[in-house]
Amino acid sequence: MATVRDWNWIGARAAVVLTLLVGALSVVTGIANIGAGAGADFRVIGVLVPGIARQVAAFTGTLTGFILLLCAFGLRRRLRAAWFAVLVLFPITAAQGVLQSSQLSLPLVGLSAIALVVVGLNVRTFDRAVSLTTTQIASLAALAGAQGYGTAGAFALQEHFDGVSTPLDAFYFTLVTGSTVGYGDITPNSAIGELFALSVLLVTVSSFAVVLGVVFTPLIEAQFSKALGRMTEEQLDVLENHVLVLGHGDLTEPILEELSTKADILVVVPDEERSRRLSDRGYTVLTDDPSDEEAQHRGRVEVAKAVVAATNNDAEDALAILTARQLNPEVTIVAAATQRENVNKLKRAGADTVISPAALGAHFLAESALGGHGAEALEARLLGAGGESEDLEAAAEAVSDAADEVDDTGDPPDGDQRAQ
C-alpha cells in the first residue's frame, strides 16, 4: 500500500511538472511565431494550409499555454476538473505546434504527447471536485451577466456607436470598458449610446471588482492564518506523502529538527500560542486536537508517509495513535514513551515502533558509570555525528556490536572485562 501511495505521489508531481513545461513551452513558441508573421502557404501531411493559420495557431497557442499554467495549479490541488482540462488541451497544443510548423514547435508536439500519457495514467490521483462557495458562484455569474449585457446591448445599439458592426466588436467594447482600459477606438455617437456606455461601465467594473475581491480574499486569509499559526483548507488540500506529528512536547523538539530537512512535516497542536511559535520558526502547523478524528482527517493522515507521537503525555499519545491507526491502517506510526512501562500499551494502541528515550539514556549513563567506555561512541554513531547521518541498518549494526559485549549468559560483563 505504501508503495502504491509513493507511486501516486511521484506520478502526481510528474503530471504537474509536465503540465507546467508544456504550458511554458507553448507560450514561448507562440510568442516566437507570432513575431515571425503569417508567411506563405504550406503543407501538413499532404494538406495545404494557408499561411495565416500559422499566425493564428501561434496566437491561440500562447493563450492555451497560459491556461495550461493555471491548470497546473489545479492539478497540484488534485482537482478532477483540471485533469479533464489538460487532457483536452494537450492535443490542442500538439495541433497548434504542428500548424506553427517550425523547429521551436517540434519539442512542443513531443512533450504534449508525453504529458498526455503521464497525466492520463494518473487519473486516480486527481479525485477532488471543484468546490465553489455561494459568493464565488454569484460573483462569476455577475461577471458573465455583465459581459452578456454589454455585448448584446452594444450590438443591438450599433448605430449609436462608432466602430461596432459585429458581435466581436460589441464584446471587445464591453471587455475593454469593464477592465477600465478604455482604448477609445469605439465611442458612442448619441445620447442613447452615452447612457448605455455609462450603464455598461457601472455594471462591468462592479462585477470585475467583486470577482477580484473573491479571488484575493482567500489569499489574504491565508496570510492571516499563517500569522496565527493556522492553515487554510487550500493549504491542507495539497499535503501528501508528509510526516504527521501529533502533539508537541520536549521530546518532539529534536524530532522536528531531524525531520525538517528530510521530509514535509505537519504538526498538530491544540495550543494556539505554541502553534504560533512553531509557525514563526517555519513549521507547518494545524491548530487542533491531535487525537480528534476530524483533525487528523484535515491533516490528511490517509496519505501521510508516517505518523509521529512523541509528547510528554503517554495517555494522549495513545489516543492519537489509536485514531491514526483506525483512519489509516497502513501508515507507519512511531512513538516515544515517557515511562518505560507504557511501551507495550502504545504498541497495542497501534504504534509500529515505540522507543523510551528515558530508559535508553538511563542505560547509557549506567553503563558509563560502571566503567563502560563505548556509550558515547555508540550514541555518536547512532546520531551520525561528525558526518552524514547513518541509516537504520548502520544503527542496527552499532547496536549489534554493543550487544556482542554481553556474555553468553545474557549478563553484562564485569567492569574489568568492559575496561579491556
UniProtKB/TrEMBL annotation:
UniProt xrefs under SUPFAM superfamilies: NAD(P)-binding Rossmann-fold domains, Voltage-gated potassium channels
TM helices/strands, residue ranges? 12-36, 56-75, 82-99, 105-125, 195-220
Q: Work out whether the entry's keyword set contains Chloroplast.
A: no
Q: Name one GO cellular component term.
A: plasma membrane
Q: Where is the protein found, in the record's own terms?
A: Cell membrane
- Per UniProt, what is the membrane topology? Multi-pass membrane protein
Single GO biological process annotation from the record: potassium ion transport
Alphabetical UniProt keywords: Ion channel, Ion transport, Membrane, Transmembrane, Transmembrane helix, Transport
| Residue ranges of domain RCK N-terminal in the record | 240-356
The annotated region (Disordered) lies at 388-420
Tell me the InterPro entries matching this sequence: K_chnl_dom, NAD(P)-bd_dom_sf, RCK_N, Trk_Ktr_HKT_K-transport
The record ties this protein, via Pfam families, to: Ion_trans_2, TrkA_N
Q: Where is the composition biased (Acidic residues)?
A: 402-414
Q: What is this protein called?
A: Voltage-gated potassium channel
Species source reads Halobellus clavatus
